[in-house]
Write a structure and sequence with these properties.
By secondary structure, chain A is of the alpha/beta class. Helix content of chain A is about 30%, strand content about 20%. The radius of gyration of chain A is 19 Å and the shape is globular. In chain B, about 30% of the residues lie in helices and about 25% in strands. Classes of the chains: A alpha/beta (about 375), B alpha/beta (about 200).
């Protein structure tokens, strides 16, 4: 395995979000600092079609176009947060990368059920048209991409944004992850018996599945030299495939370990230089065991502090990588390690460094962010605060 | 960045639904969705060019205009049927499911990217992986499936096609890729003219 040559090419200039913790970055920061789970009963999912009605629902009005609604809510906040930098970027140098697995799947349900569905909502069934409309709405006339790598999509979208900047085709890129709770997706995971009816418990000895969630999460990535002092940078990345199974991860974690090693080499870092790991942590039996095996393989007995956040807002699919990266950026800025909401009893053999509750980390500098997904996909992203 | 100066299209292939019935690609093949089947068929003849490379140095870049929407429609139709929703179909309601099937078939463990759109940057994204030294070979696949049921929802004609090409850097290639050749329709039109089908 050789090095790839990613460098510190892009910084996070601002962000915005909507998820189960609430509208905006502040409620998420508060939930992170207090280890609060926002999973709650949602009557939309009370039918026999679904394994549970305990989900991570965002506090937004239900419309026929939740993908647009969540994406624009998050993007407006991200744009406000980075207004001073954005003003200096010509529209043709501003790109947009959308990450989604199901775009506006709400439209398909409505059409099939004979319910009202606007032409725009129907248009946003197609992820590329959703991306084009978002780019037009937010004045991004540079390159527009649309990433759909299962639950690694958000992380890969951030990488694609950094690559657009590295290639010199954009000075700034709006990266937006979005997926909404739908009968389509919750029923699908129910058919696979992949949901924990009592709410997900990542890395817990009694874990038995994930909790569906929804979010819009947006980041403005900018060329490193345009970023403010103390910004959080993308230091490097790696991705891989298990080449093993469509839905189940490899048992030995070799694929994820490979992605982590590529990211470390690309960043010019040794494992000992990682201060904290933000895990994918779905709460399924196999995912969490696989992640633990991968971490043991790369870090040996010295696994840095690790935690997972899906017990807070659920599994937000195509938004997960962006949303969880924002949480990591908040941790770097405010020097704390998030906990693992809903984790009670760490499963035997899992890392002893798993964090149940948040703690101060005055020297926190580098975070390894992990995501994995159906189709054997793995992603690793290293964030660093200057 | 790597020292790659030139990128070559070392093999190409295209296929459609007519080849599925006679395909001999193992027992898994029959259980896959149409997009995955077409992608596998398109890539199969290219394998001789990448099978000797380290598995972690082969990358997959997929483009699909409508993603998994045809499978989505078929899956969701089950909620009204006595048999109910199919977990097997649900697995294929991700645009990137073709990546999983191709990776399993060819034991490819390198990086992957699935883009949903017109594919303007399909080859450019592959070239970027080579130039950044993230891979030694990149399999680029454009797969399009628009079922009859889907045409009732979106303004695109029925389709069931896949096109694949293999990008490699610095090696002996049959056709050098010009970085201005971003339009995949034009690239494949030229490849067809040159009869560069493996």
């Amino acid at each position: 395995m050789r090095n790839n040559t990613t460098t510190t090419s892009a910084a996070l200039a601002g962000w915005g979000l909507v998820c189960a913790t609430g509208n905006g970055a502040s409620p998420l920061r508060d939930a992170l600092q207090h280890n609060r789970s926002a999973l709650a009963v949602d009557s939309r999912f009370s039918r026999a079609l679904f394994q549970t009605n305990l989900v991570g629902a965002a506090p937004q009005e239900v419309t026929d176009d939740p993908a647009w609604q969540f994406a624009t809510t998050a993007l407006h906040e991200a744009v406000r947060a980075s207004e001073s930098i954005l003003r200096t970027i010509p529209a043709e140098r501003l790109g947009l990368v959308l990450s989604t697995t199901k775009a506006n799947i709400e439209a398909l349900e409505r059409i099939a059920d004979g319910r009202a569905c606007s032409m725009v909502a129907r248009r946003h069934l197609q992820a590329d048209l959703l991306a084009a409309d978002l780019a037009a709405e937010f004045g991004a006339r540079g390159p527009v991409q649309n990433v759909s790598n299962a639950c690694v999509s958000g992380l890969i979208a951030l990488v694609q944004g950094a690559k657009l900047i590295r290639r010199g085709v954009a000075d700034a890129v709006l990266v937006i992850g979005v997926d909404h709770l739908s009968a389509f997706v919750v029923s699908g995971f129910s058919t696979l018996k992949a949901i924990d009816p009592d709410g997900c418990r990542p890395f817990d000895q009694n874990r038995c599945g994930l909790s569906p969630g929804e979010a819009g999460a947006a980041v403005l990535l900018v060329r490193a030299d345009l970023a403010a002092p103390q910004s959080v940078y993308i230091r490097g990345w790696g991705s891989s495939n298990d080449a093993n199974h469509m839905t189940g991860p490899s048992r030995d974690g070799a694929g994820l370990a490979q992605a982590i090693r590529v990211a470390l080499r690309a960043s010019g870092l040794a494992p000992t230089q990682i201060d904290y790991i933000n895990a994918h942590g779905t709460g399924t039996q196999y995912n969490d065991a696989m992640e633990s095996a991968a971490l043991l393989s790369v870090f040996g007995a010295a696994i840095p502090p690790v935690s997972g956040l899906k017990g807070m807002f659920g599994h937000t699919l195509g938004a997960a990588g962006v949303l969880e990266t924002i949480a990591c950026a908040m941790s770097l800025q405010e020097k704390f390690l998030p906990g693992t909401p809903r984790l009670e009893h760490v499963a035997a053999g899992f890392p002893a460094s798993l964090i149940k509750t948040p703690r101060r980390a005055p020297h926190l500098k580098r975070i390894l962010k992990l995501n994995t997904g159906f189709g054997g996909m793995n992603g690793a992203l290293i964030l660093e605060q200057a | 960045m790597s020292n790659i100066r030139n990128i070559f299209i070392t093999a190409a292939n295209w296929t459609d639904q007519s080849e599925i019935a006679t395909a001999r690609l193992g027992t898994r093949f029959g259980r896959m969705d149409l997009s995955s089947q077409l992608a596998l068929l398109a890539v199969e003849p290219l394998a001789e060019h990448f099978k000797s490379l380290p598995a972690d140095r082969v990358a997959l870049v997929i483009n699909t205009r409508t993603g998994s929407l045809s499978t989505d429609v078929a899956y969701w139709a089950g909620h009204d049927l006595a048999g109910g929703l199919s977990p097997t179909l649900f697995i294929y309601t991700l645009p990137s499911s073709t990546i999983g099937e191709l990776a399993i078939r060819h034991k490819i463990t390198g990086p992957s990217l699935c883009q949903v759109g017109e594919g303007r940057d399909l080859i450019g994204a592959g070239a970027d992986l080579l130039q950044a030294d993230e891979a030694d070979a990149v399999i680029c696949v454009d797969v399009e499936v628009v079922s009859a049921a889907l045409t009732a929802l979106i303004k695109l004609p029925e389709a069931a096609t896949a096109r694949a090409l293999l990008l490699q850097g610095n090696g002996p290639g049959e056709r050098e890729w010009n970085q201005n050749d971003r339009d995949i329709n034009q690239v494949f039109a030229t490849l067809r003219e040159q009869n560069l089908k493996k």
